[in-house]
Design a protein that fits this description.
376 residues, alpha+beta, Helicase, Ruva Protein, domain 3, six-stranded antiparallel beta sheet, two-stranded parallel ribbon, 12 helices
């Protein structure tokens, strides 16, 4: 698959194309400031391209580019690649009778990267490419002027067009990045993804398993099916924690091998009878209110003690203390009911409303969803 040619710097791209543009050209140099803001010199010699890193030649090109006109014919002794000493070179046309020695066409254009110039040196021998008979002894000034004008016009257009295409591509890339940022910000404003909650919950499950197994002197892991069974359960966090600990004891008691490694499976999970977990709507409201009351009291306590009101400090100030992960899980699980209660009882839970980010996110996210539904 082909790449856009203008991804490279215009001068480098021009040098790569010069033999297709002018088949008679076999030697050329290009000096430019790259998009990475580095001075570079590219060389063409009999179809082979290479970059020149010699610092003295680089400095010589900088001095050279300041002294020349936009279009010059020069001889071998006047170009910087052939003469890199520190003596000042006088850039000027030779006498008319010596014009045939001026075989280097030098072109320059203003760089779009820095305040310097992009420069190209092209060795133009007598060639049918430019309508000059190779056997002719004369290479007149008028013919050279015509050739220079044609090549320079093409060069300036090529460079200008390449810069414009690169800028258009850069603008397109910026618009794509802006669109990505907008989408990313919208996702951040919405509820935290299920994947993130799943990761938090898995960490919480693994922590309970590790702590329980460590107390009993066993190295306990669990299967993916075990994790999925817990995640897909519809029980409160307190029941989930109790069931996990219970599964650890069941696995240890039924372990007949002598090693200390145990893997928990779904067979170790014994959930409460579903009929016992069915509660009416009013009871669900009451349990959510109790949850908010508990977190509000903990948030006030944390605030009075000078702590920042975040999941870990609120959890520490709960009685009994709970983990930040369990708070996150409970808020996520009850978020719809929490939003309804916050709307119905506007004077309740002021600390959570104003300072606790998980609750503020619930308010913002459901408000945005409702606004979008109204607009639809």
């Amino acid at each position: 698959m082909s790449l856009f040619s203008f991804i490279k710097h215009p001068v480098e791209n021009y040098m790569n194309s010069i033999q297709q543009l002018y088949p008679g050209i076999h030697e050329a140099f290009g000096c430019f400031t790259s998009y990475e803001n580095k001075l570079k010199i590219i060389s063409l010699n009999d179809g082979e391209f290479s970059f020149i890193d010699d610092k003295e030649i680089l400095r010589s090109f900088i001095r050279f580019s300041k002294k020349i006109n936009n279009q010059n014919w020069l001889n071998n002794e006047s170009i910087p690649i052939k003469n890199t000493n520190h003596k000042r070179q006088n850039i000027k046309q030779l006498k008319i009778e010596d014009e045939e020695n001026n075989l280097w066409l030098v072109l320059k254009t203003k760089s779009k990267i820095t305040s310097s110039y992009d420069v190209v040196l092209i060795k133009v021998n007598k060639s049918n490419t430019f309508g000059v008979n190779a056997k002719s002894k004369s290479f007149s000034t008028s013919k050279k002027a015509l050739i220079a004008n044609i090549i320079n016009t093409n060069f300036q257009h090529f460079i200008k067009n390449s810069y414009e295409n690169y800028n258009a591509l850069s603008l397109l890339n910026k618009s794509i990045e802006t669109l990505k940022d907008i989408i990313s910000n919208q996702n951040k404003k919405s509820t935290v993804s299920e994947k993130k909650y799943k990761q938090i919950f898995i960490q919480y499950i693994n922590k309970i398993i590790y702590n329980s197994g460590n107390k009993l002197g066993f190295n306990i892991s669990c299967s993916e099916e075990y994790i999925e069974n817990i995640i897909n359960s519809k029980f409160d966090i307190s029941i989930i924690e109790k069931t996990i600990k219970q599964s650890v004891y069941i696995s240890v008691n039924s372990h007949i091998n002598r090693n200390n490694n145990i893997e928990l499976g779904t067979e170790h999970l014994i959930w409460p009878n579903n009929s016992l977990s069915i509660i009416n709507t009013k009871h669900r409201d009451n349990s959510t209110i109790e949850l908010l009351d508990r977190y509000e009291s903990a948030a006030v306590k944390a605030n009075n003690q000078g702590f920042k009101i975040i999941g870990s400090t609120v959890g520490e100030c709960c009685t009994p203390s709970v983990s930040a992960a369990s708070i996150t899980f409970n808020i996520k699980k009850h978020e719809s009911k929490i939003f309804d209660l916050l709307n119905n009882y506007e004077d309740q839970w002021p600390t959570l409303r104003s300072q606790f980010k998980p609750i503020k996110n619930v308010i913002n996210n459901f408000t945005e969803k409702n606004d979008k539904l109204k607009m639809a």
